């Protein structure tokens, strides 16, 4: 049995690969980002490399690790076998290697990988008649479709923007479950009772506003209607976040990071609205980086760290390196946004953002390397 088939839990190989990819991909990209010329590697510009690494390599690995572990627990069904986990990890590695040599082939294999993960998720959700997780299945399928369209050479409106929009949707759905749940759990560990009753009106308004804003952004990114719905989405997401009372968990860096990461979603909608109504003052990349570095980067690190700690029996442990990890990803988010706000110093701030990103994911590997590399017999992954 190969090494990839001996991991005790499904998240291990994928979180390990994702963190390594996040570090190496940006470390390799950083020198190229300062080079002149339209191409940098295999006919790609540095910008294309950066975008492809996040959307088609790092994020699919994180999604696979989380969903292969969480969905069996949510649905009450058996988790993936070690053989299936190993095969999917190998498929991801093939996609990443192919992306270095041929962009269309690499994105195509990444699409196959996502379709395979979507198939597993479909079996879990449909067999369990789990209506609650149908939205996860739909968003994952839309993400896979966006990647497939990118492999086919579709324009950004029908590939990259749908892929990013579906990722944001997944962050909002998963974050909307994990953030309040871990906030309550932290309060209970502190001997306090914290009731966070969801409001159906707030939840529906936030989902509808965000869905409409993202759909309009895909189809008409510069239209006034897009800006108007982005304002509504920013307000609704901010209200949703405030109802989770993040100020009650500032003593926990990991739980506070979930709130902070979710806050970047609202900030991103606000920045996109600003661009639509004042394009001379702010470019579109400010919102995109608020979403990708701020929301997705922070939430992914916080959720991965939480899952690893829980499965290693250290749910309440917060090593100093883990706290530094969240400081680093926050610094990366702020620096990347500063580069958009002050173009004159963009090179400096972009470089700083990249170094902080590398530090954040490097600290994740340093903090959790033992658990990620643990192989051999262990509890069934079906328990989630």
Describe the 3D structure:
The structure is a single chain. This protein is mainly alpha-helical and 384 residues long. It is 74% helix and 0% strand. The chain is globular. The relative contact order is 0.11.
Secondary-structure blueprint of this entry?
Blueprint: H1 11-32, H2 46-75, H3 82-101, H4 103-127, H5 134-151, H6 160-189, H7 200-219, H8 224-242, H9 253-277, H10 285-311, H11 320-341, H12 346-373
Helix pairs in contact: 1-2, 1-12, 2-3, 2-4, 3-4, 4-5, 5-6, 6-7, 6-9, 6-10, 7-8, 8-9, 9-10, 10-11, 10-12, 11-12
Short description:
This protein has 384 residues and is mainly α. The protein is built from twelve helices and no strands.
């Amino acid at each position: 049995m190969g090494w990839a088939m001996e991991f005790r839990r499904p998240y291990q190989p994928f979180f390990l690969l994702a963190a390594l990819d996040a570090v190496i991909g940006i470390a390799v990209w950083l020198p190229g980002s300062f080079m002149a010329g339209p191409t940098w590697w295999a006919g790609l510009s540095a910008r294309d490399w950066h975008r492809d690494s996040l959307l088609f390599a790092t994020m699919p690995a994180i999604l696979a690790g989380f969903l292969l572990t969480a969905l069996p627990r949510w649905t009450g069904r058996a988790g993936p076998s070690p053989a299936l986990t190993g095969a999917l990890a190998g498929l991801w590695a093939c996609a990443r290697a192919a992306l270095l040599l041929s962009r269309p082939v690499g994105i195509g294999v990444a699409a196959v990988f996502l379709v395979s993960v979507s198939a597993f998720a479909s079996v879990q959700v449909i067999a369990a008649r789990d209506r609650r997780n149908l939205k996860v299945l739909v968003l994952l399928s839309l993400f896979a479709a966006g990647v497939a369209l990118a492999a086919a050479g579709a324009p950004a409106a029908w590939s990259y923007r749908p892929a990013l929009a579906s990722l944001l949707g997944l962050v909002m759905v998963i974050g909307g479950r994990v953030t309040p749940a871990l906030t309550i759990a932290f309060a209970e560990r502190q001997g306090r009772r914290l009731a966070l009753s969801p409001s159906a009106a707030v939840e529906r308004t936030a989902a509808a506003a965000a869905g409409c804003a993202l759909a309009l952004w895909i189809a008409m990114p510069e239209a006034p209607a897009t800006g108007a719905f982005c304002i509504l989405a920013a307000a609704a997401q901010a209200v949703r976040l405030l109802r989770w009372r993040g100020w009650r968990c500032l003593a926990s860096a990991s739980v506070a990071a979930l709130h902070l990461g979710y806050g970047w979603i609202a900030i991103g909608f606000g920045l996109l609205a600003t661009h639509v109504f004042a394009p001379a003052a702010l470019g579109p990349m400010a919102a995109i980086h608020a979403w990708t570095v701020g929301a997705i980067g922070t939430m992914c690190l916080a959720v991965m760290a939480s899952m690893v700690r829980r499965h290693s029996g250290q749910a309440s442990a917060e090593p100093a390196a883990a706290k530094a990890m969240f400081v680093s990803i926050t610094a990366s988010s702020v620096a990347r946004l500063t580069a958009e706000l002050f173009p004159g110093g963009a090179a400096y701030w972009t470089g700083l953002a990249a170094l902080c990103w590398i530090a954040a994911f490097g600290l994740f590997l340093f903090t959790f390397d033992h658990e990620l590399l643990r192989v051999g017999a262990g509890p069934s992954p079906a328990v989630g």
